[in-house]
Amino acid sequence: MKHGLVLDDNPPHFDGTRYFNPPSWRPDNAVSGRTPAQRFRNILKWQLSLRPRWPDALPPQKPHTLTAPAPGECLATFIGHATVLLQFGRQGREPLRIITDPVFSERCSPFRSFGPRRVRPPGICFEDLPPIDLILVSHCHYDHMDLPTLRILARKGDPLCITLPGNRSHLEKAGLPRILELDWWDSTQAEGARISATPALHGSARTPFDQNKALWGGFVIETQDKTVFFAGDTAWGRHFDAIHNRWTTIDLAILPIGAYEPRNFMRRVHMNPEEAVMAFDTLKPTQAMAIHFGTFQLTDEAILEPAARLNLAFQDRARPFKALENGETLALSPPPASR
After folding, report:
1. Does the keyword Signal apply (predicted)?
2. Are 324 and 290 in contact (CB under 8 A)?
3. Do residues 99 and 83 lie in contact, with contact meaning Cβ atoms separated by under 8 Å?
4. Neighbours of 139 (CB within 10 A)
5. Are 192 and 90 in contact (CB under 8 A)?
6. What is the DSSP string of 255-295?
7. Does residue 162 sit within a domain?
């Protein structure tokens, strides 16, 4: 595993008031000429326009149950959208359990009766979740930071919530007992694992008045046996090269594939399936699983399109990159010495 610095792998991303995406990491090396107010108006105009509508619900999927991992094994369960339950088996101890961007609410919205609504239920019922040791929150958008879910998790145990700078003020409203902010490339030891914050090309806001006041990013989780990368929300860019330069061995990459249309401005914050494959090729993980598709209608692509395009773009590859059903689990086997 490689952790050495390379040229321009940590360019400035904070101007003293707001965070920003380093232009050198953009594929076109360009800065948007629009002001935040102009971008907000354009997005609002698009949101209010006639858009292809997803169905209110999809046919029920087969039920899934959780199992405990063997020592050295990692089980990654896709609960829905960007919510993944990671269970790392440990010899003679309870598994380490980490949940990413937990959202179990019916809507990802500041309003109870308005905003994107689920078309697929969580793949695992909230009541069936095992005790959670660590919560990873990639940024403050409502489809990733769900305060009602976080409040219940806070009451169920004593989880440590790890996030990026500027998000503490939001998370404190959920009553989480422990919150730790990590800037890009910062690391901490927690519950026997090393957690590092990684860059992403995205943005943040929970109101029209706090745009980019909090940072966004992903995480690398390193245990004794496995290394898992959770990308959070991100566009395609050269930050994936910087991540690969530091972690040349990744067992599992969790990459977003949805919410990419209309492409003229979604390309700056979200990858489409073909770009997710490019990220896979840059990171060179042993395998990957897809997130950020098929649960909430946030953009214009058809509900089944991201997974279909991923399968088409990734066909005939030796290493798997799967779009799982909600509740389905991907197993990372123990290393040979742990069998």
Report:
1. no
2. yes
3. yes
4. 29
5. yes
6. EE-----SHHHHTTT---HHHHHHHHHHH--SEEEEES-SS
7. yes
What type of residue is 97?
R
pLDDT digits (tens, 9 = 90+) for 187-246: 999 999 999 999 999 999 999 899 999 999 999 999 999 999 999 999 999 999 999 999
- Residues constituting the chain: 339
**Residue at 336 is within a domain:** no
Cα–Cα distance, 1 to 286 (Å, whole number): 14
**Residue ranges of E strands in the chain:** 74-80, 83-90, 93-100, 134-136, 160-163, 178-181, 187-190, 193-198, 218-222, 227-230, 252-256, 287-291, 321-322, 329-332
| This prediction's pTM | 0.92
pLDDT tens per residue across span 215-232: 999 999 999 999 999 999
Supply the range of the domain harboring residue 141: 71-330
C-alpha to C-alpha distance for 52 and 73, rounded to whole angstroms: 42
Q: Which residue type does 1 have?
A: M
- Whether residue 2 is predicted with pLDDT greater than 70 in this model: the reply is no
Cβ(296)–Cβ(117) under 8 Å?
Answer: yes
**What are the CB-based long-range contacts (under 8 Å, 24+) for 8-11?**
9/242, 9/245, 9/246, 10/184, 10/185, 10/242
Number of independent structural domains in the chain: 1
The C-alpha angle with vertex 97 and arms to 121 and 94, in degrees rounded to 5, equals: 130
Report the CATH number at residue 153.
Answer: 3.60.15.10
Two tokens, residue 74? 């990692």
Give the burial class of 201: count Cβ atoms within 10 A of its Cβ; 0-12 exposed, 13-18 middle, 19 or more buried: buried
> Alpha-carbon distance 285 to 116, whole Å?
32
